[in-house]
Amino acid sequence: MPSWNSAEKNAGNCGIVPSTKRGTSMTEILTRLAPKSAQMIRIPGEATLTVSDIAAACAGANETGLNILLAKVVGDRSVQKPLFYAIYRQVAEIAIKEKWKYRRGSEKIRSLVNLALYEYVGEPRCPSCRGTRYIQHNKCQTCKGSGYLRFDDKQRAAAIGVHASVWLRVWRDRYARIFQVLGYHESDAVHSLYKRLT
Question: In whole angstroms, what is the distance from residue 74 CA to residue 28 CA?
Fold first, then answer.
């Protein structure tokens, strides 16, 4: 399985996500902020928000969450490395705090974080909504509003190099914990941006 950093992004529209009161969708906001992204969207009409407005709104927002949004929604590849290390540090802290027992140290945690990021912001995004969870303001029916298509447990176990039974017994709950961390950062960033832009 390729790392999420090497996943090629498809160009084109990311789908429609809920809009701000000014009528600008999150995809448009993030595209204006990262204009060199692989998924540059041509925004018709006059812009109601400037890059300066968006940058000011992002100034106090959760940086890890903004990086998740830029990678997931816009396909900005420049945030992949800082995002990986930010999540890796948090997961390592969780592992120490919760006294995770595992062999071969950080190798498994790196693989686990890489896999989680690949699934969360990488290529396996839903082909219908392109990871935004919505199609024209309605919940996507293909992915049931999750925004991505998940691997099964056997595929995940193989990706980090453990037997499927070990995955189910040890690593599955840890993987779910990483998804909670990613979801927290993403929702915090979205909430912060909407609050500052509306």
Answer: 9
